[in-house]
Give the backbone structure.
Amino acid sequence: MYICKHFAPHELVPPDVYNIFQEKNMIYGMFDENALRILDMLREWAGVGLTVNNWYWKGNRKDCGFRTANSTFGAKNSAHKLGKAFDIKSPKITTSQLWELINKNQDKLPCKIRIERTSEGKPITWLHFDTNAAPIQAVRVYYFNA
């Protein structure tokens, strides 16, 4: 099991999940190891703080990491519900800059990933990445529109 270097368990799950599974090994075990590794890699490449969830500090982000099966937030079959996706924001780096870092370092990624560019036809203002790539995905980094 991979334990994040730069993200605490409460940053990765919604409050109700955290309250049940506060033991960090249980929470990290809910995620795809490659997704967690990539999350840490992004933090290191960016050199600035990145936010997944911030509800712990009274922020409004709580559904940007793991989502329960009955969550109505986002897509019905979201990779978030499989522990394979994260939505990331930072006031210190743009989404485009994060995309550039991923493209520049894609040979270092532990697996193929997907990155969302638009949602319902509008550009997104956060980085969504997931490790839910199809085995036949030809490219290391696949950009898609939701």
